[in-house]
């Protein structure tokens, strides 16, 4: 009976295939030998004897440091170029598309008014955040930002359905004016 289990041999064979060992017809016997010999030491951590040569994908570059440098193993130094959870600001064009998606909806559909007004409010504020975070700066979108500030002043922080319904004309008018402004400034959001 063999000392290695079949799943262990499969894992080693897959790892060797990924590393490109035994890809040629002449290497077929070597791959089986390597898989069998690696499988006999499955309980111990296998040594990496298949480090890529200079210039091969996965080969360390000059100046690479950390655990495993020069062996093809991952560096112990974490990549801090982007932190999980950090998302770039939304693009104005994407926020504008969300606002435009409300154009064919209204309070006329029974049972839809609360959702519709809340969505228009949300899409306007999504636009506001995107315009203020845009690399061109908030000064690039003066009228839309001013219109949203005016709306917020009238709503006085109350986003309830009753208040949105009370200010429905202003809410929809703000949406429509921003849509018109954005349509007249296509280079500002593409």
Largest sheet: none
- By DSSP (H or I, 4+ residues per run), the number of helices equals 7
| Class from secondary-structure proportions | mainly alpha
**Dominant shape:** globular
C-alpha-based Rg, rounded? 30 Å
Oligomeric description of these chains: single chain
Any low-confidence stretches, pLDDT <50, length ≥5? Answer: 9-19, 22-49, 59-83
* Overall pLDDT level: 72
Distance between the termini: 67 Å
The percentage of residues in β strands lies in under 5%
Give me the strand/helix succession.
HHHHHHH
**Total domain modules:** 2
How many β-strands, per DSSP? 0
Helix content: 40-55%
Topology (SSEs and partners):
Blueprint: H1 6-19, H2 28-39, H3 92-100, H4 113-133, H5 142-155, H6 161-166, H7 168-183
Helix pairs in contact: 1-2, 3-4, 4-7, 5-7
